[in-house]
Specification:
It is a single chain. By secondary structure, the protein is of the alpha+beta class. The chain is about 35% helix and about 30% strand. It is built from five helices and seven strands. A seven-stranded antiparallel β-sheet has the order 4-1-3-2-6-7-5. A hairpin with a 4-residue loop joins strand 2 and strand 3. The chain is globular. The chain starts with 10 loop residues before the first strand and ends with a strand.
Amino acid sequence: MTIRAHKDGAVGGALLAFGPDGISRATYWKAIAAFQTQLPAIVDAGATAIYIITQAGFQIAPLTAPGKSDAEVKLMLTPFTKTLDQLNVTYSLNVSSESTFMGHFTKYFSPFPYGAYPTAQLLGGRLVPRSVVEQNNDALTSTFRDITENSAFYVAVTALGVGKPKNATPVSDNAVLPAWRNALLTVLVPSVWDFT
């Protein structure tokens, strides 16, 4: 197995959130679909985005952009925030730039050692190819809507460019799991477990 290590340095980050209050359900889901159409460009710019979709709201938590300033992160999200403005969706956006990856990680994923996300969950998941987001985003968004509106589950997604890293010499043309070669999203569908 090959593991790549990268030199530490500045890491840009962002949190963006909005809910369905004050807008129609159709507009809420149109906004989510609009974000997903931006994911190939965001990932191609070297960022990773974790986002969560529930009945109560959408949240990018967080966007991680190695080597990017807070201004560059804001610019990266501008096509999406313009769409939100056009749809009259009220949102919060907080961007940052930390001097190290550990600073970024601590800001967005603490408290340690347990982290910001619950571990008592039932979950399943899938890898979603880039082609699905680029060519069939409406069906993907519809599936996410069906999961969140018709069950006790929510959708947690990580968008990342694992297929062919930019500015990286390929190690080989294979992968431990061949589906990683074309994946843009890793999708988890969790529900919190009630121990009582």
